[in-house]
Amino acid sequence: MNKYERWQQIEELVDQRGFLTVKELSQFSHTSEITIRRDLESLNSQMRVRKTHGGAASLRVGASGGVDEETNGVSHADQSVFERIDVLVTADMSPKLANLIEKSIRKRKIPLIAESQPLPGTETYVAVDNYQAGFDLGRWAGQYVLEHCDGQAHVLDLAYHRPNTLLRSQGFLAGLRQVIPTAELILSINTQSRFDMAYQLTRDALTVHPKINIIFAMNDISAHGAYQACKDLGIDPDRLIILTFGVEGAKMLDLIVQGGWIKAGVCMFPEIVGTICVEAAIAAYNHQPLPAELVTPYCIVTPDTLLDIYQKTPVGWRLDWRKIPCQFQLPLPVNLEKPDTHRPLPRRMGFIYTFIEHDWYKTVNQTMQEYTSRLGIELEALDFEQTIKDELNLRRVEIARLAANEVQLGDTIFIDSGPISGELAERLKNHKNITVITNSMLVLEVLNESQADITLISTGGALRRSSQAFVGPNAESTLKEFRIDKLFLMVSGVSINFGLSHTHISEVTIKQLMIRAAREVILLADHACFQEEALIQVAPVTAIHKLITDNALPASIRLELGTFGISVILASM
């Protein structure tokens, strides 16, 4: 298609979706991202779409994700998610990413409820007693092997190295050994909570250790992998049992009822967890005191007991809520029939999920959607990876803004290729009487459109398409001829011991030449780059004079950099 047909397609797509990223538009149009960026500049100038950071938003009133009266005309695409919610529920995540979330919500005073395990800044966290539940399942397994396996217990532990899931494995073995003191742990393997790894590792373990007769899976997806491995190997279900921790959704409920290898499991009731997360979020929104942990109920289910709690309906399995108050104690009051809508309620609630392919989060999310709908609360379910990516992009925009403030009239600067280079170029478009040298194709394209008095110089060289950077002997020889006032450097990793490091070997030499040519080296790096060591060292940290980063970088690292005389400028978010 020609560019006019492509423009029409882009406009229609953006109007339909409300907002699309450059990458998404590139995929839809089968066109390079560079071309899409040019297209968006043209469409923006024609007032057909609104060019935003990383994509385009619709100008049509009412378009999904477009302009929202409640946010004063600011597109959702331009906002941090934390600017449009009143309270946040988040699933388990790594400490580094949890720190990013905590920094973002603390400034905006958004209450945070954690699911699974505590995170920095949480009002409370909602979780089952992992150790005790594992212990009870271990005792059940012990009684089973006494009755069916002559008291022989040889265990394969499909683990995951997170604090809450490790407690499950520890509790299971302790409970099993209370009944069968001679129970043998054959292997404990980290499946990384993935089906494919659980499947292959189970096949390998059963092939090498055929005496294994108990498989403990710390969640359903690992149990599914083990189930498929046993099925493909033709293992006799009377010789081996699989025990799962979760009973998260329809697939596992079906397998337990059918019998076979999966003889029992800890049912953690994702329906209860989702509901309690909503109630905890409402309480936190109203500044009501909450305990450090809200412990949710669990029970051991078997093919014989499952139907006492769940009902099979034409639309799938449903928890029989009528039986819950009689059998279990909930940490907060819940009335599904007549939820309390007369108390102050948040307008929007966010839920950041991980592992959405797992039935646990599908069920938790569905439960939260249904319950908040009854309460009249809008629930925004947020993909963990995309939320973090969007938040990092916003931080990079602010880093670029501060970097642009460092450029003075008459400066000769070098802009390195990297994740912040395009944003910096955008903020330099109106600067006057500066010289910009770059090895970034994106910087060249952005500044080539500028009407300001900017002398633009390319290093030339071979274009590395994946990073849109010029590399090779020609680019390197160009740098040897220049002396530049300021270098805006970008790398993949920063650590005190290994220094500045980068993933792509072909770009390292040119970065080293940039550093030698610069009077002042300014590193542009978001907090995610720190404590990381990429493949190749570029230079020691002492090579930089100034760092511009975001406020999620821990104070301890900032202090350590200060001992080297490095000035640190923080982008506040």
Give the topology.
Elements: H1 3-17, E1 19-21, H2 22-29, H3 33-45, E2 50-52, E3 55-57, E4 87-90, H4 95-108, E5 112-115, E6 124-127, H5 130-148, E7 154-159, H6 163-179, E8 184-190, H7 195-208, E9 214-217, H8 220-233, E10 241-246, H9 250-258, E11 262-267, H10 270-285, E12 293-295, E13 299-301, E14 310-313, E15 316-319, H11 324-327, E16 348-353, H12 359-375, E17 378-383, H13 384-405, E18 412-415, H14 421-428, E19 434-438, H15 441-448, E20 454-458, E21 462-464, E22 469-471, H16 473-479, E23 484-489, E24 493-495, E25 499-502, H17 505-517, E26 518-524, E27 536-539, E28 546-550, H18 555-562, E29 567-571
Parallel strand pairs: 4-5, 4-16, 5-6, 6-12, 7-8, 7-9, 9-10, 10-11, 16-17, 18-19, 18-23, 19-20, 23-26, 26-28, 28-29
Antiparallel strand pairs: 1-3, 2-3, 11-13, 14-15, 21-22, 24-25, 25-27
Helix pairs in contact: 2-3, 5-6, 7-8, 10-12, 13-14, 14-15
CATH fold category name of the largest domain = Rossmann fold
CATH architectural label of the largest domain: 3-Layer(aba) Sandwich
The fourth-level CATH homologous superfamily of the largest domain is Translation initiation factor eif-2b, domain 2
Proportion of residues in β-strands: 15-25%
This entry's quaternary arrangement is single chain
Low-confidence stretches: 61-78
Mean pLDDT, nearest integer? 88
State the name of the first-level CATH class of the largest domain. Answer: Alpha Beta
* Largest sheet, spatial ordering of strands: 20-19-18-23-26-28-29
Output the radius of gyration. Answer: 28 Å
Terminal CA distance: 42 Å
The figure for the number of domains is 4
